[in-house]
Amino acid sequence: MPNPSAGNQEMLKYLKYYIPAATGILFIIFIMMGQNYPTYFFIGWSLFLFIGDYILPRDKEIQPFSYPGILNFSIYINLPILVCLIFLVVSVFGNHSPNWYVEMLHSMNVDLAQIVGSFTLLDRLSIVFQTTLLIGILGTVPGHELTHRKQNKFDMFIGNWMLAFSWDCTFAIEHVYGHHKDVCLEEDPASAKRGENIYSFVIQATVLEQLSGWKLETERLNRRNQNVFSVHNRMLIGFSRSLAITILTFAFGGLNGMAAFLLCALIAKLFLEAINYIEHYGLVRERGKPVEMRHSWNSNHFLSSIYLCNVTRHSDHHRSTKLNFWELNPAHEDAPLLPYGYLSMLYLVLVTPFLYKKIMAKKLVHWDLNNATEYEQNFYAVQF
């Protein structure tokens, strides 16, 4: 006789990966509810993250999945949700909105002008920051997953369009072909040094990643005897995607709407680099030695793992980039663990960077004594 409990558990292990998509849809609804609701959502969702990561059981096992298509769809569906969110936000901040869009919302009993007029300054700030976080969760994170699938043209297509919403086309190039080769070496722009200021890191990493991505793409095209300034240049194609989205936001919401989108895209890029900062902070590797489990910070906190497509299982991701997000192993004994979830650490490093460094200094002492090789131990003076 079938066990209903087993069937429910089987369904839930798939449905949990739809939490990011559900969050995006729910935020769209809260925006359309008008005054105060975006603020309620931003505060409530942030508390949900902190408390949920703290009290929910740790995610420490690889679960078997018989239907990977359901898991892939949980990623693909994020793109249309992100598009709907972005253009709603553009309408909130814009000078005007197309008549057909206003009429469509009106047919859903949504009065756009009344809603926009009801928003307080705090509501508008909440919309910006929540939208920025969702560009990362619905765009950058699944885009990262899909652009590692280099042999799958459909996944690469969807992934690159997801990355376009944060103007970060170089991520699919520099991250895949640069960072994964140079991680924890001095020349890797995405590996943060001990004690490095988070905001100077964000600026420096952004610039150096662009330069590195352009260099990698130039070398690739030269090997193929193709012109750098041509339709074969993946960086130029990527920038054209972001430019197309930006032009559409201008057409949709005028100068103010476009400015709101660009602000969200810029902050989303800042958040991405802050995650990069967290992933390898203070860790070093000897040149010529392989990347090991000890060269990434990991987290088994449930909500951070779900919202970030298991990128929190970061050591295993670097061990094999061919693994799908549901195949990553969170239970390697020599993979160092963060004290809190990735998203909690993101808030911590951006709001109180001094506290982040203090917490991580103790973790790095433990890493030096228990994980590092002699070379890695001597690379930095021990910091307390």
3D architecture notes:
- The chain is mainly α.
- It has one domain (4-379).
- The protein has 17 helices and no strands.
- α12 packs across α15 (342-351).
- The longest helix has 47 residues, at 234-280.
- The radius of gyration is 21 Å and the shape is globular.
- The termini are far apart.
- The model has no long low-confidence stretch (mean pLDDT 93).
Describe this protein with a few key phrases.
384 residues; mainly alpha; single chain; 17 helices
Terminus-to-terminus distance: 60 Å
- Note the total helix count: 17
Quickly give the structural class: mainly alpha
Can you summarize the main beta sheet?
none
How many domains, in number, for the residues? 1
Kindly estimate the percentage of residues that lie in beta strands according to DSSP. Answer: under 5%
Helix content: 55-70%
- Work out the radius of gyration: 21 Å
Task: Note poorly predicted spans.
Answer: none
Q: Categorize the overall geometry.
A: globular
Short structural summary:
The chain is built from 17 helices and no strands. With 384 residues, it is mainly α.
SSE layout and pairings?
Blueprint: H1 4-15, H2 19-32, H3 37-55, H4 68-76, H5 78-93, H6 99-107, H7 112-118, H8 121-147, H9 153-164, H10 171-182, H11 198-223, H12 234-280, H13 302-307, H14 314-319, H15 342-351, H16 353-370, H17 374-379
Helix pairs in contact: 2-5, 2-8, 3-8, 5-8, 5-12, 8-9, 8-12, 9-12, 10-11, 11-12, 12-15, 15-16
